Amino acid sequence: MKQPPRPPRPQSATRAFARASGAPAGDATARRGQAPRFERPDAFAAARREDSPGGEPIIREDEMDNELGVKKIGVVGCGVIGMSWTAYFLAKGFSVRATDPNPAAEARTREYVDNAWPLLERMGAAPGGKDRLFFSTDLIEAMDGVDFVQENGPERIDLKRTLFRDIANAIEPRVIVASSSSGIPVSDFQGASVHPERIVLGHPFNPPHVLPLVEVAGGKLTSPDVVDATVRFYARIGKKPVRMNREMKGHIANRIQAAVMREVLYLLAQDVASVEDLDIAIAHGPGMRWAILGQFLNADQGGGEGGIRHMMEHLGPAMEGWWADLGRNEHIAAEDIGLMERGVAKILERHDRAAIASARDSVLAQILQAKAAEDRLPY
Amino acid sequence: MKQPPRPPRPQSATRAFARASGAPAGDATARRGQAPRFERPDAFAAARREDSPGGEPIIREDEMDNELGVKKIGVVGCGVIGMSWTAYFLAKGFSVRATDPNPAAEARTREYVDNAWPLLERMGAAPGGKDRLFFSTDLIEAMDGVDFVQENGPERIDLKRTLFRDIANAIEPRVIVASSSSGIPVSDFQGASVHPERIVLGHPFNPPHVLPLVEVAGGKLTSPDVVDATVRFYARIGKKPVRMNREMKGHIANRIQAAVMREVLYLLAQDVASVEDLDIAIAHGPGMRWAILGQFLNADQGGGEGGIRHMMEHLGPAMEGWWADLGRNEHIAAEDIGLMERGVAKILERHDRAAIASARDSVLAQILQAKAAEDRLPY
Questions:
Q1: Choices 3.10.580.10, 2.40.50.1020, 1.10.1040.10, 3.30.70.100: CATH for B253-372
Q2: How far apart are CA A348 and CA B117, in angstroms?
């Protein structure tokens, strides 16, 4: 089975969020029947309660009732992606034990979480959740007692190899380590670690505390059960995991983005339209449909009663002509970067970058809520 | 100037919609100073009022106050795109005179408008607007007195040539004719018409009554003033036109879609993931960002303080690697269509196609409203 079981969609956005972050116990019990060999049945009972730094019990039972029994998540690397994951895990009621070699990362991470929190609260964040963050520059101390690790180190194979070796040595053998690697396959760096079978790709989409996608793929040494369990874990905590049957350079979404960037850059370099108009051609056109349905179901919709078959048979010859005509640029020239930068700068004359970021996240949250409240959508 | 002037974004979604469909007279007066040589100044006064089929004055002044003085729009071809344009123009308060050689098209179009109307009303449709539709199978009768024509004939050069010749003969020389041609450049069919300088591309994105994008491009014989006036007209009636500096096969958005389809089809054929997971990888990841910002501003956001320059310098080598690895399929094989169809069918086992369509349009309308209400977005 490639898809994790999906809970039924409730009618209200708020309820949908609540459900995504923790289905009723009955549901979880039913799922335990399908649990992989990698499960930790003992952890279910142990995970019921935990004391907060202040001594009060603050973990809600339903949040912790995932089949892996995860309650403490280790976050390794506190760049943009690590900080955003931290905010998300905290919002879902987990304790987070974060580490980064840079001591300044602690203040930066706490500030990031503070800034993200109002949005997360609108999306149903666990009350008081942002206080459950422990930080240490010492990886071994930070990883003490964690049940799941999300790695967000630099995108370099040599550094990843060392980092995974150190993480693997610091945790229990059965703890899953998911990598946010945006392009490097897990196979390229899992080999140096003890128990490489629990190392898996868990690549989010920026910003992870808002966008649901996580790409999950096993490396050559990863246990298929770990891949399955990881897919189910992410689905359980409100993410939308996809299961890759095998590793690919750039995974899925970054390849699709690269294809889009290649074409818009080609059209820009050919002076077909301005940076702003090329952006509008996505954001007020196909981009709006892609926020709801992927390319296949959109094509199916375009085919009317005949569905995707009619669409592809009807549009096929034209599409083949477009494929033949698409840009084939192989390199990003200094000139290309200049063109893009000048076009973007023209937009930023009128609109502040930080304001755009905040506006984007706010609209993203509204799109999430509109989608969650719509029970006729397929995914 | 490549961009039409954009009115300031008001705070409320409802007000934003009202503004998009007709700015106050003062605003329009200011704009007349920039009007192209192609304007019809006489039409401003003439366009103030019109009698409805029932005899009541129903055209609101502000709706009609566009620089072209358009009040009656001819819609040629009532397939899916023509019907959707009809619904949009009616919602914006215009009289529509539609034609299609098939007599059954009238009932189908009226039904389409009826079905689209509740959504259009949520988006601020002109009250009573849907009654302002006249239909005739006779092109000459239908085009009588129109001020603007939107053509939506079959996607075949020979048919387009004949159709444009007939349309051009049926209307006043100064009336602009915009083609919804989804891939064929205007240059390929404008030559057979009288006054080819007023024939222009106005390619919408399906469904045009919901999605704002319109791609505008002149053919070899089109007057640049007509291109400018068309861009401004669409902007004025609430669309988001982009101005192409020159014609391209597939225009802009269909090329981008073709690039996306090429890659997801490649990944499907390579068994990297299921149809559903490849759709999720868009709809819960980059697709959500693309609904708000295009590829360039998203890349700029990804680069933090360093913007798109930092992003492209940092990610450039990885992206070049992905470009080199992207699918290069040239043809859509029967086998590919089978794969897509089976994957889609699996989703449709659980979800009805018509229900998905309705859910998509409903969420699209909510996205439009969320974007209109957000005054910090750049476009």
A1: 1.10.1040.10
A2: 37
Per-residue pLDDT of A145-181, as tens digits, reads: 999 999 999 989 999 999 999 999 999 999 999 999 9
Peptide bond into A53 cis (omega under 30): no
How far off is chain A from B77, nearest CA to CA, in Å?
Answer: 17
B318 has a chain A CB within 8 A of its CB: yes
pLDDT of residue A64: 56
Shortest CA gap A36–chain B (Å): 21
Q: Which DSSP letter does residue A1 get?
A: -
- B240, A284: Cβ pair inside 8 Å? yes
With an 8 Å Cβ cutoff, are B308 and A242 in contact?
no
pLDDT confidence band for A13 (50 / 70 / 90): very low
Interchain CB distance below 8 Å, A256 and B274:
no
B337:A371 CB<8 A: no
Handedness of CA A38, A41, A42, A44 (dihedral sign): positive
Q: What angle do CA B325, B326, B331 make, to 5 degrees?
A: 130
Confidence of residue B304 (pLDDT cuts 50, 70, 90): confident
H-assigned helices in chain B: 13-21, 25-32, 41-46, 61-64, 80-91, 105-122, 139-142, 157-170, 224-236, 253-269, 275-283, 286-290, 295-302, 307-325, 334-350, 353-372
Token duo for residue A22: 């923790």
What gap in Å lies between CA A160 and CA A163, rounded to an integer? 5
Task: Check A325 against B212: CB less than 8 A apart.
Answer: no
More confident residue, B12 or B299: B299
The Cα–Cα gap between A60 and A267 comes to 52
Q: Reduce the DSSP state of residue A354 to 3 states and report it.
A: helix
Tell which of B231, B260, B265 to mutate to test the A interface (max A CBs under 10 Å): B260
Sequence spans of domains, chain A: 13-243, 253-372
Residues ≥6 apart with Cβ < 8 Å to B114: B130
> Which pTM does this prediction carry?
0.84
Angstrom distance (rounded) from CA A84 to CA B225: 49
Angle between helical axes of B275-283 and A295-302 (0-180°, round to 10): 100
Tokens of B377: 């977005």
Question: Is the CB of residue A365 less than 8 Å away from at least one CB of chain B?
Answer: no
The ipTM assigned to this model is: 0.84
Contacts A351 to B, Cβ<8 Å = 376-378
pLDDT for B33: 32
What confidence tens digit (pLDDT) does each residue in A112-139 have?
999 999 999 988 898 889 999 999 999 9
If DSSP codes are grouped into helix, strand and coil, which group holds residue A378?
coil
Q: What is the pLDDT of residue A69?
A: 87
Residue A247: strand, helix, or coil: coil
What integer best gives the mean pLDDT of chain A?
A: 86
User: Looking at beta carbons, which pairs linking B184-187 to residues 24 or more positions away fall under 8 Å?
Assistant: B184/B155, B184/B157, B184/B160, B185/B217, B185/B219, B185/B247, B185/B248, B185/B249, B186/B217, B186/B218, B186/B219, B186/B222, B186/B247, B187/B219, B187/B220, B187/B221, B187/B247
Q: What is the CATH number of domain B13-243?
A: 3.40.50.720
